[in-house]
Specification:
This protein is an alpha+beta fold. The chain is about 30% helix and about 20% strand. Among the domains are: about 5-50, no CATH class; about 75-105 and about 390-495, Topoisomerase I, domain 2; about 110-170 and about 325-340 and about 365-385, Distorted Sandwich (Topoisomerase I, domain 3); about 185-310, Topoisomerase I, domain 4; about 610-659, no CATH class. The strands form seven sheets. It has a six-stranded antiparallel β-barrel. The protein has a four-stranded antiparallel beta sheet with strand order 12-13-14-15, with no helix packed on it. Helix 3 packs antiparallel against helix 13 and helix 4 crosses helix 12 (about 435-445).
């Protein structure tokens, strides 16, 4: 039995043995963390029995998730809405997103002021703008950098003083700064890095990692080869064999001065560390050597894994950081104003040989201590504190790992479940809680406060780990929590009040033209439209438009079933969005009107037209990073096609249209 090397894999092996009535004593279990010839042969040479403790831990997890999740979900249906779900991992995660949203909504911005000065360093160079750090007088020190300059009146007083002050360089200090290499990747950090660098969501990242783990056909007699080790791990550790391979590679490619072998360390609190970190199976397979064998996304992810693995055993990058301090003294008072800025110059690149970035050396001005400077402008600016940022997928995974909610195998699936259930939604990279998600979170906090706490969920994960280690029995874990939980479920089912349905409505901000009530967004698996909030008293509905006119019927009045040119609308079918024309209807089983349809979001037409043929333009590529003509379509006859396609960044789109 060679299923995955984790708790679920062990259970799958056990179930196969049970279903086929195989002899447990003669059925062997083989475990490998990478699908390569040597790893598989070694695993078969060291086969073992199925680990009953791991199977028991799986059973405990399955029972808890199904029994608890099912029972909690059943109390949501009569009080909120059918087909809702709750669970041991997804519900505390939802609660945290809801908590963050409430912090944002209750946030009150505070005013503060900053003051910059522009200095003419030399006649040949551009003026240098430097921020004010501190204001020092006999009574107090105002730390401007820490937002202690609060009012406009204060800023005016200090601006007037600076306009009449004399400026000089009071201190120049150069120190060595070290930038340490990254650690090898584990599941959570892989998902975080892939989101930040490539905007891959968690599911996409794990799907690509699965492909690299299972193997890519490299041809040339090699066949299908696994390129990375097992991708569900909470460990940063590397084997001695791999560290030796990295050492040889770095020494031969660069020099021994670039090598700095690191000792393995504990990843995060509560980590099982059953496997190595995610790493290439062969260090010698550089990303460039595989460029022609991988698709674009596979290559990006493999390069990220390879770079982090090799860089983790390389020396730190070393910079010379020069800090300049400029002091302004006024004639009429003892107040002193301190401006400060720093610049870095790379002295030794270290791991930056592998992980390159766009940073270049800072331009260090040629200044001398006690040198007087000419201030050409003082720039006060009013600012306001900003609310905390919403979670994106990367920061949410980081939070889940830090408090012990879930395990590497459940991060991506938990986020996917919350999105599929319409509890949260992605907007410009951030995760926003929906009205439904907020109502569910509040209900669960009110009636299942213990299960919604991070400590309870993390403790449950620890108990499952203890079962896997043989330190605790399955039955004792289940018995300790089952009876009080069931009593609470029965109480909630019998006493909980039905939630006010108006709290689930998503208002669009528009008024119903028939009754002047608010319009709300109506969405399900097979429909998407705006309707009156006073339904069923008012049955008014309208399409959701993109703001773009339809190019296919603008000059064909015979297709105008609404007696006007069509607008492109947003529609939904079988859970997927598509774009159609408002002049389309289905009557008596027949398609009537304009049949325009696209699976990709159109740019506003006719404001934006294809420069080659004048037709509609569409956002294309993952995340809409490209712009292409509607006629760039292989299904069209060759004489009707248009080849226009550019990167979005190269096409002039104003910010509002892009949003």
């Amino acid at each position: 039995m060679a299923t995955d090397p984790d708790r679920e894999g062990e259970a799958i092996a056990w179930h196969i043995v049970d279903a086929l009535n195989l002899d447990v004593s003669s059925t062997k279990r083989v475990v490998f963390n990478q699908i390569t010839k040597n790893a598989v042969e070694t695993a078969f040479e060291n086969s073992k029995q199925i680990d009953d403790y791991l199977v028991e831990a799986y059973k405990a997890r399955a029972i808890q998730d199904k029994v608890w999740g099912f029972m909690m979900s059943q109390t949501l249906w009569p009080t909120i809405k059918r087909n809702l779900s709750a669970g041991r991992v997804q519900s505390p995660t939802l609660g945290e997103i809801d908590k963050k949203e409430k912090e944002i909504q209750s946030f009150v911005p505070e005013e503060y002021w900053s003051i910059d000065s522009r200095f003419q360093i030399s006649q040949k160079s551009e003026p240098l703008q430097i921020p004010l750090k501190k204001i020092i007088n006999a009574d107090q020190t105002i730390n401007v950098e820490s937002r202690e300059l609060k009012t406009e009146q204060e800023s005016i007083i200090h601006t007037e003083a600076l306009n009449n002050a004399k400026f000089s360089v009071s201190d120049i200090n150069t120190k060595e700064r070290r930038s340490n290499p990254p650690q090898p990747l584990r599941t959570s950090t892989l998902q975080q890095q892939a989101f930040r660098r490539f905007r891959f969501n968690s599911s996409r990242t794990m799907s690509l990692a699965q492909q690299l783990y299972q193997g890519i056909d490299l041809g040339a007699g090699e066949g299908q080869v696994g390129l990375i080790t097992y991708m569900r791990t909470d460990s940063n550790n590397l084997s001695n064999e791999v560290i030796s391979d990295i050492s040889d590679f770095v020494t031969q490619k660069f020099s021994k001065s670039y090598l700095q072998v690191k000792k393995n360390s504990k990843s995060v609190q509560g980590a099982q560390e059953a496997h190595e970190a995610i790493r290439p199976t062969y260090i010698s397979r550089t990303p460039e050597s595989l460029r022609n064998d991988l698709d674009q996304d596979q290559f990006k992810l493999y390069q990220l894994i390879w770079n982090n693995t090799v860089a983790s055993q390389m020396a730190a990058a070393i910079y010379d950081r020069t800090t300049f301090e400029i002091t302004a003294n006024t004639q009429d008072s003892d107040t002193q104003y301190v401006f400060s800025f720093s610049g870095d110059v790379l002295k030794f690149d270290g791991f930056k040989k592998i992980i390159t970035d766009q940073d270049s050396d800072d331009e260090i001005p040629d200044l001398k201590e006690h040198q007087e400077l000419k201030c050409i402008e003082v720039l006060p600016e009013q600012r306001f504190t900003k609310p905390p940022s919403r979670y994106n997928e990367a920061s949410l995974v980081n939070f889940m790992e830090s408090v012990g909610i879930g395990r590497p195998s459940t991060y991506a699936s938990t986020i996917k479940t919350l999105i599929d259930k319409k509890y949260i939604e992605r907007k410009t990279g951030a995760l926003h809680i929906t009205a439904l998600g907020s109502v569910v979170s509040e209900f669960l906090h009110e009636h299942y406060s213990d299960l919604m706490s991070y400590e309870f969920t993390a403790q449950m994960e620890k108990q499952l780990d203890d079962i896997a280690q043989g330190d605790t029995e399955l039955q004792s874990v289940l018995n300790s929590s089952y009876d009080p939980f069931v009593e609470n479920v029965v109480h909630v089912y019998e006493t909980a009040d039905r939630v006010d349905r108006t709290r689930l409505l998503v208002f669009t901000g528009e008024k119903c033209p028939q009754c002047d009530k608010g319009l709300t967004r109506k969405e399900d698996y097979n429909f998407l439209f705006d309707g009156c909030s006073d339904f069923p008293n008012c049955t008014y509905t309208q399409d959701i438009t993109t703001g773009s006119m339809c190019p296919d019927c603008e000059d064909q009045p015979e297709l105008w079933i609404n007696e006007e040119p069509g607008k492109i609308t947003i529609n939904k079918y079988r859970g997927s969005l598509f774009y159609g024309c408002s002049n389309y209807r289905k009557e008596a089983g027949l398609n009537v009107g304009c049949k325009f349809s696209s699976g990709q979001l159109p740019l506003e037409y006719p404001k934006y037209k294809c420069p080659d043929c004048g037709d509609l333009l569409l956002f294309s590529g993952r995340g809409g990073v490209n712009v292409r003509c509607k006629k760039k379509n292989y299904r069209l006859p060759e004489e009707s096609r248009c080849g226009f396609s550019v990167k979005k960044s190269d096409f002039l789109i104003d910010e509002d249209a892009d949003q």
